[in-house]
Amino acid sequence: MNYILFGPPGAGKGTQAKKIVEKYGIVHLSTGDMFREAKKSDEKISALMAAGQLIPDETVVEMVQKRLQKDDVKDVKKGFLLDGFPRTLNQAEALDGMLKKENIKIDAVLSIYIDNDEAVKRISGRRVCVCGASYHVLFLPPKQENVCDACGGTLVQRTDDKENVVRDRLTVYENQTKPLIDYYKKAGILVEIDGQQNEKEVFKQIETAIKAEAGKLGS
Question: 12: closest CA among 207, 163, 196, 209?
Fold first, then answer.
């Protein structure tokens, strides 16, 4: 039971990934987590992320390749969810090569889609506190504007959540990642998920897709 999850910034991939991992007990392979850890010691990766640009293919591929070698991924009974990779055709082709060597098959690619205006609204409204608490000016506002409910600290907007950066990120997605839809559609494993719905409805679609794929494997 191996899946790929992708979609544009703001599509809710992180939220849905957690739900999938918790329900099905599979390993979460998040390149976002890998990048956040790497940027602590790599200034180049940190600068690219702040500007909303993609990390070079060779760097991402190397990270994922190392992760695929770990024992929890090699436990075929568990399966895994690739979240945030691949993001380009080069990465997809590199992944195909890696998986072929390990005799691993991707069962389905879950593609969450939302329109650009919705993505901008979701991301640019985020606010965070140094204590780790997160808010949204529309969907989860603090009791007092720009003040953290938990610690009283000042809420800020992350650099990569600003509207101009978000739109740049969406342009990068359109140019480099969206072609993967055709790539996996041709492979016959693409499942499109309507991300415009609330998170519960989105997860219902994902559950239906996974159940359908499991049915194919069992038939």
Answer: 196
Neighbours of 105 (CB within 10 A): 11
Read off the pLDDT of residues 114-159 as tens digits, 9 standing for 90 and up.
999 999 999 999 999 999 999 999 999 999 999 999 999 999 999 9
**Model's pTM, two decimal places?**
0.81
Cis peptide before 86 (omega within 30 of 0): yes
Q: Annotated catalytic residue: which of 121, 122, 127, 169?
A: 169
Q: Record the tokens describing residue 36, joined without a space.
A: 């956040």
Burial class (CB in 10 A: 0-12, 13-18, 19+), 52: buried
Q: Looking at 67, 121, 122, 126, which residue is catalytic? A: 126
